[in-house]
Structure formats: C-alpha cells, structure tokens
Amino acid sequence: MFSEISKNGLVYMAAPNIPFSHGFTTRYGGVSRGAFESLDLGENRGDEPERVRENFRRVKAALGIDKLCFTHQIHENKVRYVTGADAREPGDDTPPDCDGLVTDEEGLALIIFIADCAPILLCDPERHVIAAAHAGWRGTVADIAGEAVRAMEGLGCDPAGIRAAIGPCISRCCFETGPEVPEAVTAVLGKEGREYIDGSERDGGKFFVDLKGVNRALLIRAGLRPENICVSDECTVCESDKYWSHRVTGGLRGSQAAIIVNRRA
After folding, report:
1. Confidence at residue 38, expressed as pLDDT on a 0 to 100 scale
2. Residues in contact with 185: Cβ distance below 8 Å, sequence separation at least 6, in sequence order
3. Edge-to-edge, what's the strand order for the sheet holding 256-264?
4. Structure pTM?
5. What are the phi and psi torsion angles at 228 (to 5°)?
6. Considering only CA atoms, which of 40, 47, 92, 51 is closest in space to residue 69?
7. In this structure, how many other beta carbons lie within 10 angstroms of the beta carbon of residue 112?
8. Domains of the chain (ranges, CATH numbers)
9. pLDDT for 51-80, tens place per residue?
C-alpha cells in the first residue's frame, strides 16, 4: 500500500518499494486559488505563475530537490537521458518533447505531470539509475513503460533488479472509452490484453480499460519481476477532491506530479 506523507501541510503519496526520495503529489498543500486550489504544479493551465513557483518551492523543500528535469509531454513513448545540464525552473525555456526521462546522475530529480494519466517511477537501487514516465493511453499502448526499462538497461541495469511504482491515475472503474483503446491494448498485448478490458460492442461500444494493469503487464514483459512492481489503488476520478482529474473538471484544472530523486531516502 502507498503511504500518505504530510510535510508542512504538503501531502503526497509514496510507494513502499521505492527506496529513493520520491512522491506522487496531491491537490493539498499549495497556495493556488479558485479552480487551481491548492497545489497546482501546471505551468500552462492558467494559474498565476508566482503561485505555481511557490508550489514548486514547497515540493522541492519536502523532497530535498536541488536540480529538477522537466518534459513537455506529447503522449508518445520517447524517453530522454538527462543530466544536471538539463535542469530547469518553472517558467524557464520550454523543456524537450518527450514523455519519459532517465538519468544516472546522483542527486538529480525527474518529474512528470498527470491528471488522470498513469505516472510510473522506476529505480535500480544497485546501479543508482532512475526513470519517470507519463503513460496516457496512447503512450501506454506505445509501450513507454518498456521504453523506460530499456533506457535503464542502456545504463547498465538488469530489469530483474528494477523496481517500479504506478501511481494514482484513472482506474478501470472510470476509464470509459470507445473501441479504439481496447483495440490498441489487444494489439500490443495480444490475448492477454482482454484481461484489462470490460465491455463489448453489445454494450453500445462502451468499454472500461485498466490502464494500471496494462502498464504493469508491459513492465513485466520488459523483464521486471512482478513482486518489484507496486500499483496504487487510488483513482483520480473517484477521488477528485484529492487529485486533479481532467475528466471530472472538463480540463479546467491544475496538475499533480510524480517525482523521483536519484538519492536514497
């Protein structure tokens, strides 16, 4: 089970299998107001920039972050290697287009943003390599989870030693889709993919898809041991008072983040 941690009013979730400093933020503990209340980390959602910067300052203080690397997420499967030279602050130049980051640089932090999509944090405690991936359904079926593992392999990691945490996101109970999503899931996972889909054309073409389960299956396919994968049971739609949900708000929302630091907690 994930743990809820509170530091100076900031509330975030932590996975039991990740020994590095990390967190999946919630809506609690920031200074934003109105539709963005209170811990909004979205730079381009319409919130006041100074409030977003203060929210980041609070998160960085809680997790002991010095250098932080961002992405401009595009719902694909590109994973980029980064160093301290790629670190930036909110409001700096636009970060690179990609949905995953990987590094072996000690002390560097990686961040991805979510508001229903699946956040995945990975680490190799022996090699001191970390990765973070943003897995919307398009990125999921493009196997960004596997791409993140392969990027870590390129830095000397054995997948059997990698640990992964899939954080709070939209769950099977609320991820209603048309046929294009289950078709893409079965295309990437074959018959195994049916395990993560409810519904049929007889139900009016409505389906419910287990995004967390699909990503877990892809991590296992990439070589991770099942016991090294921890999956949050929280749904951002069901718990939209605690988490930002794009579906619930119709897009008028802030963003939460998944962050991992290449430093043992």
Report:
1. 97
2. 140, 141, 193, 196, 197, 209, 214
3. 3-7, 10-14, 20-25, 256-264, 108-114, 67-69
4. 0.98
5. -95, 10
6. 92
7. 28
8. 3-170+212-264 (3.60.140.10), 176-209 (no CATH)
9. 999 999 999 999 999 999 999 999 999 999
